[in-house]
Write a structure and sequence with these properties.
- This protein has helices at about 5-20, 45-65.
- The chain is built from two helices and no strands.
- The chain has about 60 residues and is mainly α.
- Helices cover about 60% and strands about 0% of the residues.
- The two termini are about 40 Å apart.
């Protein structure tokens, strides 16, 4: 469950508890702007560089063992 969903459920439960207990419900907090899911796409050059780094790391590990 996402953090936003947990926050929304928590706020709803707090309002229900306040209603059941006869207290005034807490004010609703402003919702944060929605963040994009995941990362920015990786450039082809960076992907190639990362691939070379990992291949070198694997080769060094294989050589060591």
């Amino acid at each position: 469950m996402s953090a936003a969903s947990r926050k929304r459920i928590s706020a709803a439960m707090k309002q229900r508890w306040a209603k059941w207990n006869g207290k005034s419900a807490p004010k609703k907090a402003k919702t944060a702007p929605k963040k994009s899911a995941g990362r920015k796409p990786m450039s082809a050059a960076m992907r190639k560089k990362l691939s070379a780094m990992m291949k070198a790391r694997w080769a060094a590990r294989k050589k060591g063992s």
